[in-house]
Amino acid sequence: MAGTWTRAWWRWTGGPTTRPVKRVVRVDGRSRADEPDDERQAFGRWVRKRPRVDGGKRRGDGCGRRSLSPTWVLAVGGPQSAGRGGRVGGVGRDASRLAGLQRRLQGIAGGLAVYDEAPDNVSSSTYSSTPSLPGCRVAPGRRADAGLPLARVTSNRIDVEALAAMDGVGRFREVLPMLMDPVAFAEAFVSGDAAGGCRVPSRGMERHRATLRSCGVASDARSRPAFAMKAFTTPKKDGRTARLVLDARPLNDAMRRPPSMDLPRLRDFIAEVERHRFAMQCDGVSYFYQFPVDASISRYFGIGMKGCDMLLNVLCMGWSWAPCIAQRASNVLVRDLGLAWVDNFLVLGGTLDEAERNVAVFRKRAQAARVEVRAEGDDALWQVRSRFVCVGVEFDLAAETQRHRLDPAWAERWVDGSGMTAVLSGRATARQFAEVFGGAVWATDILAVPRCHFAALLSFAGRLGGRMVGAAAPVWDEVVDVPPSARRELGALRKIVRENPWVVGGVPEDTGSVLWTDASSRAWAALLEAEGRFVDGRQGVFAGPDADAHINLKEMLAFAEGVVRLCWAPGAQRCRIDNAAVVGAVAKGSSSSYAANRVLSRSLRVAGRRGIVLRPDWVPSGGQLADPYTRGTSLPRFPAQLPLPRSRATPFDLF
């Protein structure tokens, strides 16, 4: 049985297989006491091997190499015998524990993740029998936050009952039982069985135990938690402190999905802010940790730790329901006063007096509910301003026309970050690409740059996301080859973000015309309506590759032809389309199809040069006035009267 030897590790895998295979990790000279108890219990049994000096192969050793020092071997899985008919390992064929060890070794957070920090005598080779993604290799991970202390956490607790009494809509009262009612919490489990039993140990969290106790965030568990999950820390923006996050995937998988967060869309958020002239901004101090959790529910928010597990006494950051609860609570505080983005509060006013009155009402609500807030940056608390930064957007409401752009500090970090450099070089880890791509999505939304202009980048991100979801093991630290076309588009976006131009808000005036576009299996038509008549139009037949295209792409081609050939007046151009996929793509500026993005990019570039803002609307097929001209009817002589629709719109037109 051939194996691969390194200075500190030995492993053998039988190649890709669907059956459990034996995996042996050997650490020469390492004491059994050096390994945490929870890892021994969770991932296998340590078996001491007697030193062999004759080089002979001993049954159960797993190898025939010479060994002169005492060795501890952690054996997992496989039917290999040990000693006289025994079996090495405490996990056997348990596939879930086998996958757990593999995740620890392949590690999302870094390299070989069996230990908090790899010893000097441990190779950085990756241990896994799962085939890597095609065209990828594994790069060592990082733990940049390993030594950071926890950020200051408030000991304040919100009066959730008082907050619920202010809720005139009832959206917060709908989710409040998930914090205070153990019966309602148990009913949220998919299987109906809330017994739990999951225990995943945390690494390196013992040093934060005293901090968690002192601020009341967590307490020592007096009995076994229903779910004891892995906790970890992530660096905050200041780079000097870290926040505590619980990997609550076991709990999230066992519960039903939470309802809508009621979080506004970013574009709607920006548009609402730019309707005002003054604003006051503040954010909640350790906002999630201000929400108390009933003692009978905290047993589901356990932290697996060496020695003694802990229980979170506050809202768990990492639980799928937590953002929904926090956002709905914030909406209660700013109702009829402004906007909220999770823990960011923005109180608005059209005039200075209106803004100050709204701030006074917000202060009363926050004090009544005992919500602790602080000013953003160096601003004084409760100060009303016309220029500020909120949720990564810099607003200038004092200008003649309200405008916004990216937060310059954020833009500089994204443009010159190490992740951007790695992606543009063509060899970046999946983690680096995901971080850069997430920033690209955020930047295009704020700067109003349609994402269809980056069709190759979107296509590569979609393919990579699909491969990661389908992979059997975490692949965040695998190096991926970014195609040149995606890098070119990312470089173009990087240039735009570096310039960081101001985006002027407001709604343009309507052009007074309506563009009707439609496509059939063989032809397309586009007509322009103004003052109740058709004033111009075009039609054509699909040829070449377009003749065999999907109907959604044909509808997009018809729309592009209409914009390019018929729309010339600047302003808001209304468009009538009977294809929901095209309406959605035009509205958000991108599609899930590479070909559709290329076509849409062409039409939006032309519209942008002419000062046109497209406003697509869906119409049922029976009300599509361009439909007859895609089925053999010739275009009329313009101007022409509008034809009667084939039928009235009914709900059945949706199917």
Describe the structure.
This protein is an alpha+beta fold. The protein contains 20 helices and 30 strands. Strand 26 (523-530) and strand 27 form a beta hairpin. Helix 14 (418-425) crosses helix 15 (430-446). The protein is globular, with a radius of gyration of 30 Å. The termini are far apart. Residues 1-144 and 647-655 have low confidence and may be disordered.
Q: Please, what is the average pLDDT?
A: 78
**Computed Rg:** 30 Å
- Helical region count? 20
Low-pLDDT ranges: 1-144, 647-655
Strand element count: 30
Query: What coarse outline follows from CA principal-axis ratios?
Result: globular
First and last CA, distance = 61 Å
Q: Please bin the fraction of helical residues.
A: 25-40%
Strand content: 15-25%
Break the fold down into its secondary structure elements and pairings.
Elements: E1 4-5, E2 10-11, E3 23-28, H1 37-43, E4 45-49, E5 71-76, E6 81-82, E7 86-87, H2 95-106, E8 137-138, H3 160-166, H4 171-175, H5 177-180, H6 182-187, E9 198-199, H7 209-214, E10 218-220, E11 227-235, E12 242-247, H8 249-254, H9 266-273, E13 278-284, H10 295-298, E14 302-303, E15 310-312, H11 322-333, E16 338-341, E17 344-349, H12 352-368, E18 373-375, E19 387-390, E20 393-396, E21 403-406, H13 408-416, H14 418-425, E22 427-429, H15 430-446, H16 455-470, E23 478-481, H17 484-499, E24 503-504, E25 510-519, E26 523-530, E27 533-541, H18 551-566, E28 571-577, H19 580-588, H20 594-609, E29 612-618, E30 640-641
Parallel strand pairs: 9-11, 11-14, 25-28, 28-29
Antiparallel strand pairs: 1-2, 3-5, 4-5, 6-7, 8-23, 10-15, 11-12, 13-17, 13-18, 14-15, 16-17, 19-20, 20-21, 21-24, 22-23, 25-26, 26-27, 27-30
